[in-house]
Amino acid sequence: MRLRALIRKELTQMRRDPRTFIVALVMPILQLVLLGYAANTDVRNVPTVVFDQSKSKASRSLLDAYSATGYFQLNFIATNDDDVNKMISGGTARVGIVIPPDYESDLASGKTAQVAVLIDGSDPTIAQTALSAATLVGQSQGTSIRLLQLQARGLASGIAASSPLEVRPRVLYNPDLLSSYNTVPGLLAMILFTTTTNLTSASIVKERERGTIEQLIVTPIKNWELIVAKIIPYVLLSLINVIVILLVGTFWFSVPIRGSFTLLFALTGLYLVPNLAIGLLVSTVAKSQQQAQMMIMPIMLPSMFLSGFFYPIAALPVVLQFFSKLIPMTYFIVIARSLVVKGAGIEQLMPQVLALIAFSLVLMAFAAMRFRKTLD
Fold this sequence. Notes:
Number of helices: 15
Number of domains: 2
Structural class: alpha/beta
Distance between the termini: 43 Å
Radius of gyration: 27 Å
Helix content: 55-70%
Shape: elongated
Strand order of the largest sheet: 2-1-3-4-5
């Protein structure tokens, strides 16, 4: 009887706290889905920019061969070399294929046609796959062209001959494919996300648990003033973390900061705003610090797995790629890697900057609305 009564008591407490109960049920399902689909290192559909100066049947055949592999998604067209470099520098494309104007004429005259393949080395996983695939496609296409040429001359197809096509891949920014060039900027994004959301998610809950929230309500302080007062200390603490992470990354892991440190610092401050807003939103909903931590976990897991930190976004299913666009960390990882590894400027990063501004405005508006509702 006593055991039954204790079990009934625990079930009653669980029923009175449905948020924690739901989170406890959602977490295993979320982990299963994310680990089942997102934990995939098979890189496919790498965003690729093409600068086809030949615009011939032969160049289209080569591009079709690249597209048919499934590794390259030829979704960007460049009109000059600068466009190719800007798209790769800004993270819009990971690979650039440059076909010279005399490509078809070189093949027809028996010369060796050369094609340049530029590969973004800031993510070694994608770069290694793209490097291998680009080389194999070039070899296969060269063999096919040589066989057709020999058959057209009435020669035996088995005669050995040099390939008429030479693909020259070049890994940019990180030619040695060092993993630290990828992980250190990613860690900057992840550490800031976890620390800011965890700290701010408990800020209002602490006031409620200590009984000081009522004192804040009766003061003439406006809601936005209280929100700003809650945020600023964590912003300062996070910016100190930024300096420490960059110093350790530079002097310990030998990762150079090739872009503007001032720009990186400013955009990091912008990235902190949506993260702090997420923490405040959770803090206004949670009734205890333990519940706040449990509510953060379903947000934290997708952010880490779908943002491109652990696994390339190009390897994710299409549905998960869509959800990755709803995560602020996705955009800041591109910013951090582009600034630190590639030395990109603000003009190449405008899509990511605008996305973070939109996240900041929307999430801060929701946090202010929810905060007002909570105080009432």
